[in-house]
Design a protein that fits this description.
This protein has 11 helices and 10 strands. It has 3 domains: 118 residues, Butyryl-Coa Dehydrogenase, subunit A, domain 1; 110 residues, Beta Barrel (Butyryl-CoA Dehydrogenase, subunit A, domain 2), CATH 2.40.110.10; 150 residues, Butyryl-CoA Dehydrogenase, subunit A, domain 3 (Up-down Bundle). Strands 1-4-5-8 form a 4-stranded mixed β-sheet. A 4-stranded antiparallel β-sheet has the order 2-3-7-6, with helices on one face. It has a two-stranded antiparallel sheet with strand order 9-10. It starts with 6 loop residues before the first helix and ends with a helix. 52% of the residues lie in helices and 15% in strands. Helix 4 packs antiparallel against helix 5.
Length: 385
């Protein structure tokens, strides 16, 4: 799919790959085992300017978009999906500011995020409001000069490590989804604390924590957009960031294919490399075909979004579903090719299989994505009558 990329995007792809191999690969196993947050790698990503790629030039970014975000996410995830989330999770927390922030908010936060001095995170999901995002319970009560937040957010990527959080909370419980609003909340605000770091099946290098708000005062100037627009902020953010999740899944799948190809040439049975056996060849062919199909969809959607298209919910959901399903299938097939070795933790494909699963779940489960796609298809038919 390189023919779809500009020369600058191709250079970004090469740079991201170089950093992944030189800075992430040597530390991949360590961070997966220890579950530490990879701050030393984050500093390398920042030094290389990767956090700048999707931020406008007027806020000290490179002026790219979803395509550049996807390029970096794919190449970093090709080596480690967990470490790559420090980058991708920050993009998720930043996009509400990019899309709905006023000039003062953008000038305050975007340059710091672009430099990698501050990571970002997005807080929508709650203990009782996962797929049903419109049922959030975190309250934001209007008081003099701002709002008091009370409630809990759960499973937040970059939780506890990020400095900037975009949070969706209810400002008018009588209005349902139209009663939610979005806020920028900074780490260190009084009444804002974190739960324990979750122990996960995969993406172990990524920090996932609860966010707790107890009469947390948020200045009025930190309201994103208008009161009541929180649900719109969340949904439009996901429209832009789901291709980033798809790119993460794509990278994991490509990484598993890379490993399976190398292993199949080295591993011998019955006096010959297993790559000479038709069954292994067919597996590799199916894996490569699915990866290329996912890549075509991911980048076509990213380019569609960057072209200025407004209604992209259907396409964004398609990219997320297809790439994440491919990641789960391809990593499973890679483990099968490795045989018993594939089940061992000192071989990378078992980690890739663990990391792949979450891409079917977060930023909206694939079941929810299928609902979004179907509803959009039905609306298109109705509108044509």
């Amino acid at each position: 799919m390189d023919f779809l990329l500009t020369e600058e995007q191709k250079k970004l792809k090469e740079l991201s790959r170089k950093i992944a191999l030189e800075k992430i690969l040597p530390k991949r196993e360590y961070f997966d085992e220890t579950e530490e947050f990879p701050w030393e790698v984050v500093k390398e990503l920042a030094s290389a300017g990767l956090f700048e790629v999707y931020i406008p030039q007027e806020y000290e970014g490179k002026g790219g978009g979803v395509t550049e975000l996807s390029v970096v996410a794919e190449e970093l995830s090709r080596v480690c999906g967990g470490i790559a989330l420090s980058f991708a999770g920050t993009a998720l927390g930043t996009y509400p500011i990019l899309l709905f922030g006023n000039e003062k908010q953008k000038k305050k936060y975007l340059p710091l995020i672009a430099k990698g001095e501050k990571l970002a995170a997005f807080g929508l999901t709650e203990p009782n409001a996962g797929s049903d995002a419109s049922s959030i319970q975190t309250q934001a009560k209007k008081v003099e000069g701002g709002y008091l937040l009370n409630g809990t957010k759960q499973w937040i990527t970059n939780g506890g490590e990020a400095e900037v959080y975009t949070i969706v909370a209810v400002t008018d419980k009588n209005k349902g989804a139209r009663g939610a609003s979005a806020f920028i909340v900074e780490k260190g605000y009084e009444g804002f604390s974190f739960g324990k770091k979750e122990k996960k099946m995969g993406i172990r290098a990524s920090a996932t924590r609860e966010l707790n708000f107890s009469d947390c005062f948020v200045p009025e100037e930190n309201l994103l957009g208008k009161e009541g627009s929180g649900f719109i902020v969340a949904m439009r953010t996901f429209d832009k960031t789901r291709p980033g999740v798809a790119a993460q899944a794509l990278g994991i799948a490509q990484g598993a294919l890379d490993e399976a190809l190398v292993y199949s040439r080295k591993r011998e049975q019955f006096g010959q490399p297993i790559s000479s056996f038709q069954d292994i060849q067919f597996k590799l062919a199916d894996m490569a075909t699915q990866v290329e199909a996912a890549r075509a969809l991911v980048y076509s959607v990213a380019l569609l979004i960057d072209s200025g298209a407004e209604k992209v919910s259907k396409e964004s959901s398609m990219a997320k579903i297809f790439a994440s399903d491919v990641a789960v299938k391809v990593t499973s097939m890679a483990v099968q090719i490795f045989g018993g070795y594939g089940y061992l933790r000192n071989y990378p494909v078992e980690k890739m299989m663990r990391d792949a699963k979450i891409t079917q779940i977060y930023e909206g489960t694939n079941e929810i994505q299928r609902g979004i796609i179907a509803l959009n298809l039905i609306k298109e038919i109705v509108s044509k009558k």
